[in-house]
């Protein structure tokens, strides 16, 4: 069975069980609706990016299991990823200064939508709410069903949305669908001409190192002025009884190996 991170330490201590996993396939983020004020102002987005302590979000929301995403969408060990962090801990004073420069010296009110049945995402939203309060952004959390979240994001009826991206085999799939103008998952219709040119160029670049460099430039743009604040890569865990043989941890998850399972009894 799949196990939530909050139960892993206890399950590891149970000698009747075996656990698998540790790597993840879901990059968590806070999406901002750049089609509406004040999120269309890059200074406001940058203030929000700077106000977040990603390691704290990971620790509270996922019991510390996973990887804090202190740069772009891709984890640091993936092809095309930034290997050095863009953000460390929160920089509250710089974030406040950016908000004041953008005309919001006292902050503003915002609604953060999250899917109610996703416990670790709700916990993420709660930590983000507390962190953003430090720069004057008063966040109200709106917990909704997945179908309602889907409708609202597609119609642009949201301020902030706590969500996640599934990692893809090739970076272009996510970079295009979620961040290019007209992309099916580009909720809020963010657009950046420099970013778009890099992604289009990377598609036709056959040299692997040059292609990775193009993605790194694109990641830098996303981290600096994009529509999402990346927070952490989750960690997936599966737990089975000791006599289950042939099991493999699968963060995808496809579980194609089920046909090869057997019981040592």
Automatic annotation (TrEMBL):
Q: Does the keyword Signal apply?
A: yes
| Principal location class | other
Residue ranges constituting the Solute-binding protein family domain according to the UniProt record: 4-184
CC per GO annotation: cell envelope
Against InterPro entries, the record matches this protein to: SBP_5, SBP_5_dom
Which keywords does this Swiss-Prot/TrEMBL entry list? Signal, Transport
Q: Which GO terms describe its molecular function?
A: peptide transmembrane transporter activity
Q: Please state where this protein is localized.
A: Cell envelope
One protein family per Pfam: SBP_bac_5
Q: Which family does it belong to?
A: Belongs to the bacterial solute-binding protein 5 family.
What name appears for this protein in its UniProt entry? Solute-binding protein family 5 domain-containing protein
Organism of origin: Polymorphospora rubra
